[in-house]
Amino acid sequence: MDMEGLPKTAIHYIITEKLKMCKICAKLLSKVLTHEHKGLRLANSQEMLNHFTSDPSFLKRVVTRNESLMLQYDPETKRQGAEWYTRNSP
Question: Among 5, 19, 53, 90, whose Cα sits 20 to 30 Å from the Cα of 83?
Fold first, then answer.
């Protein structure tokens, strides 16, 4: 479907009503994590820091699989940090 020339309201309708998606502020996502998940993230981060401390070239061998966990920039507004999710998303 070619969306060039469609009004923003039509595109918004397609995304929200037809695709059943909504925007969620990325800053709020970390609050959804359980205490167990937060503990696991902390433990993993500390382990990575220990590896890096003992071998500074360690980061050259790290492969990430989900870059959405880290923002590559600091969003200036909530709107810039929002992401689209389906209504069934966790």
Answer: 5
pLDDT tens digits along 68-87: 555 444 555 556 666 767 76
Contact 16, 85 (CB under 8 A): no
Spatial neighbors of 79 by CB under 8 A, at least 6 apart, are none
pTM of the model: 0.36
Q: Token pair 């995304």 is at which residue? A: 15
Which pLDDT belongs to residue 71? 46
The answer to whether 71 touches 81, Cβ cutoff 8 Å, is yes
> CA 10 → CA 17, 29, 64, 83, distances in Å?
10, 28, 36, 19
